[in-house]
Amino acid sequence: MTGQRVVVIGAGVGGLTAAALLAKSGFDVTVLEAHVYPGGCAGTFFHKGYRFDAGATCAGGFQAGGPHHIVGELLNLTWPIRKADPSWVVHLPDRTITAWGNEPRRQEEHARHLPELRRFWPIQTNAANVAWEFAARLPEWPPRSLGDVARLIPKLRPNMLPFAPLALMSIGQVLDGIGVRRTNHPTARTFIDAQLLISAQTTAEHANALYGSIAIDLPRAGTYHVRGGIGNLARTLADSLTAHGGRIIYRHTVTRLRRLDDGTFNVDTNKGQTFHADIVLANLTPWGLANILGEQTPSGLQRELRQRGSTWGAFTLYLGVPNDALPTHADHFQIVQRYDQPLGEGNSVFMSISEPDDRLRAPEGFRTVTLSTHTRIETWWELRQHDPDGYQARIEQYRDRLLDAAERIAPNLRQRAALIVPGTPPAFQRFTRRPGGMVGGFAMTSLLTARSPHTGIPNLWMVGDSIFPGQSTAGVTAGALRVAAEVQRSAGQTAHVARRSASARKAEFAP
Ligand SMILES: Cc1cc2nc3c(=O)[nH]c(=O)nc-3n(C[C@H](O)[C@H](O)[C@H](O)COP(=O)(O)OP(=O)(O)OC[C@H]3O[C@@H](n4cnc5c(N)ncnc54)[C@H](O)[C@@H]3O)c2cc1C
Q1: What are the tens digits of pLDDT across the range 376-408?
Q2: In whole angstroms, what is the distance from residue 391 CA to residue 406 CA?
Q3: Does the beta carbon of 465 sit less than 6 angstroms from any atom of ligand 1?
Q4: Nearest CA to ligand 1 atom 7
Q5: Ligand 1 centre from 355 Cα, in Å?
Q6: Residue 483, CA distances (Å) to 96, 290, 488 in order
Q7: Going from the N-terminus, what domains does the chain have, and what CATH number goes with each?
Q8: Residues 206-217: pLDDT tens digits?
């Protein structure tokens, strides 16, 4: 049945992907976005002549069979992207390893710098091939009903069987099994940990091996620059939404979501408006959803919030830097300062530089630089509430840590930068509306406990990086494909996403 009213709360990549897919298949879709532009953590903001990527800077999942590619086909989109090679360069304390997309170059690089991992790569690559192929069939994971199980079974293949044990193992166990332990091979373990932290929100010891195989595979699968900033992914989706009859309303923060006796919803905004909906998609974290549900928060969601600890936040720096102060051999770098300290909190820093010829990003002769590190949110909030001077001092301390790391790539960055703007967890809360400034979703430690999009309230779904498969523009796109298919199915449609999912055509992944 088409014409059903769908309200999507939030114009992040997850929300917009689901919104555009549903608008194309005939739903009456309205997206309510608190901010003045779309994209959330993958948005691009304008400041003093620069367009800075707020969070995400490096996009994957556009290869054939990848989530963005599938959505591009379904919506007939042309993404504003260009392939990056190398994907990034990893600077460890004592060596530098380039993450080439090009197969022979990557293999040669690994063989030269990380010979201890030679037995790991074949296991990893074969697992990733199987995992990508499975993901391209849009599996109903985690299954929550007999219907999900019935749809899931035909998507399993015999070639997955040898990799089944990995579904229950961590990457760390795989590495331990081939003798690559932290005690005897700290360099190799740190190299793997650093990549997992940015793409699975946890390190090898805890990251699920099958999920982690996709995370580690990113350079091989391909990463991409987005022209004009990563926010142009969200803008492309917003254009598709409106072209298919949907609408996006900015500056409207949803303050209350009420389920009515007939099972429909009223969605109230800070502008005093109420939108009526048959179906609601919340592009929110579980904390954000509970905030607007108030006393209607289902007991399961309340329990979840009591049980879950806080997730990572981010500390970021946004810089405007003259071209001649920056390297040209790569645009993304991961810098680890010490082997004997945990990653995050400035000991691992991701650095992204806008493309030299992307004139949309910076004034003539300049480029934007984004630096980010994982950080625990609690201390930031304590200091902000009780010790404003301590809060400022902590900003300075983290600023120095990030700049120290970045100056390994671009010496004199401090002196040469025309502009340095910090971003803390409280700033992320303010600009992305994510409670606590918790970003990046949940650590992918177990496939069995992965969060489903179900909320405990019929016709209210979650999208975004809190649901499986979690963080990244590609991850939230995969989650949105599943939710769009389920919404279509429950509305009695078989068209569009649901049909693609059902036909589960042979994956075309060809890195
Ligand atoms: C520092 C950092 C670096 C990252 N690097 C990468 C990277 O390089 N590559 C990558 O792929 N991913 C990266 N990520 C992760 C990626 O950005 C996110 O996983 C993804 O963008 C989250 O999308 P989402 O759909 O969950 O929505 P979000 O980005 O959370 O957006 C939600 C939207 O909803 C709006 N909203 C929230 N509450 C309300 C409300 N009550 N009413 C109305 N609107 C509301 C917000 O304003 C926001 O626009 C990074 C993240 C961070 C923070």
Answers
A1: 999 999 999 999 999 999 999 999 999 999 999
A2: 22
A3: yes
A4: 56
A5: 22
A6: 41, 19, 8
A7: 5-43+227-308+442-503 (3.50.50.60), 96-225 (no CATH), 313-437 (3.30.519)
A8: 999 999 999 999
